[in-house]
Amino acid sequence: MDRRHRTAAASALVAATTLVVSGCGAPDGVAADGTTIIRYAMWDSNQMPGYQQCADDFERLHPGIEIRIEQNGWDDYWTQLTATMVAESAPDVFVDHTSQFGKFAVLGQILDLSPYLAESDVDLAQYQDGLADLWRGPDGETLYGLPKDWDTEALFYDADLLADAGYTPDDLWSLEWNPDDGGTFEEFVAAMTVDENGVRGDEEGFDPHNVERYGLGYNDAGGGYGQVQWSAFALSNGWSYTDENPWGTSFGYGDDALLETIGWWRSLIEKGYMPPLAQATSGVGTQESLGSGAYATVIEGAWNARAFSELEGADVQAAPTPIGPAGRRASVFNGLSDAIWSGTPNPDEAWLWVEYLASTDCQDVMAGTGRIFPAISTSSDLAVETFADLGIDADAFAVHVADGTTVPTPVTDKWAQAQAIMTPAMDAVIAFDADVDSLVDAGERVNRLFDE
After folding, report:
1. In-domain check, residue 406
2. Which residue has the higher pLDDT, 246 or 419?
3. Domain count of the chain?
4. Distances 189 to 268, 277, 322 between C-alpha atoms, Å
5. C-alpha distances in Å from residue 171, one per residue of 26, 39, 185, 203, 325
6. Among residues 74, 206, 243, 260, which is most buried (max CB within 10 A)?
7. How many whole angstroms separate alpha carbon 325 and alpha carbon 323?
8. Tell me, what DSSP letter sits at residue 180?
9. pTM reported for the whole predicted model
10. Do 218 and 181 fall within a single domain?
11. Are 219 and 313 in a shared domain?
12. Per residue in 15-56, pLDDT tens?
């Protein structure tokens, strides 16, 4: 499963005990006093205060429209959204994800925004390069969302543990990895690993079977996405998810570049530098494990930067992902958009809300929350300043954009089916229940989906 906002989603499951449902005294999304009600669904509870501010500001500009925000955790969010679409009671507007929007677009469940865009003052050039195109339909012309934010991945680390291992923050910017011996990155991870006797992973006598602190942590095997697990390594090894993106028809899960990457990444478990899969998926998240000292580093997304910086008992900082055999570092370049459900009774009012969410008025507000990098370039610059004020090195994320080392999330209408194949296949490999070469067969099964 995609890792995006999963940590925030966990807390959201506790917070979201009820869901606002329209229709109670408001047929066709209109209240008794004539106010148009627009239901807006999202999953990240950490971002709700910022978007509530945007809603309040929007309502002052449009006194005849009321925005009602609904929030569910990541897993429940998509289940709920699908169920309400089937029941023809979906939210008017909802936060969409690149891994999900393909099926919605192909099934006609979200509106093409191109007609509205043609009549608006929205300039797609204001967004970070490539973000708007992530939401294009198969014809390259239709547009099913306006960008709201972007994210890349970075290496989060405990600054005190870094110093204890003899490294400086600047050292991390030049780390390199390769699938043969792991390069200076593996040397670093080894040095950050400590067994129960206090012996480091790069010292004689290290016991890989009794580890107190793992040099590199992770949350699960990553399925066919590996966003915060292995993607930074595979993509910097010259690997690509698909033959083209968006709407590729051939995935590269059997490619040598991926196989050797996964083989090396899995070897870190054997060496004692990463936890076994069963331990990584035991229920204690990477954020908690880093805060407690069980992990020294983790690869995570920009969306969790503030949450990591606020961990008690640990001075958590960020550095960019390592440079790979391709001569560059790499990161998945993901973004979210706001989509309009095709069954909304109030599409024009829904568009006004989507247009506002995609404006500097709202995205500047979100920049000040220190939770995201907004999609608008100028708003993103403001977010960098906010992160700096919070003591977070935003350059660790922004370097991918500046250097052109981002790789867009694969967009397809068959992502759910592909993940249904790749998740158990990758789990089996990382659990040492299957050979790395078994991914070749899994990849062939994925590609046969596009022959149907």
Report:
1. no
2. 419
3. 2
4. 9, 17, 12
5. 59, 48, 10, 20, 18
6. 74
7. 7
8. T
9. 0.88
10. yes
11. yes
12. 333 333 333 335 578 888 889 999 999 999 999 999 999 999
The pLDDT value recorded for residue 3 is 40
pLDDT digits (tens, 9 = 90+) for 222-266: 999 999 999 999 999 999 999 998 899 999 999 999 999 999 999
Please state the φ and ψ torsions of residue 191, each to the nearest 5 degrees: -65, -30
CA dihedral 112, 118, 120, 125 (to 10 degrees): 90
The first and second tokens of residue 335, run together, are: 């973004």
CATH number of residue 240's parent domain: 3.40.190.10
**Nearest to residue 336, comparing CAs of 120, 140, 128?**
128
109 pLDDT above the threshold of 80: yes
Residue with tokens 């990477």: 286
Q: What is the dihedral of CA 443, 331, 145, 60, to 10 degrees?
A: 150
Q: In angstroms, what is the C-alpha Rg of the chain?
A: 22
Q: Which helix (H) or strand (E) holds 191?
A: helix 183-192
Of the listed ranges 10-24, 61-75, 346-360, the one predicted with least confidence: 10-24
Residue bearing tokens 């910017």: 173
CA pseudo-torsion sign 73, 74, 77, 83: negative
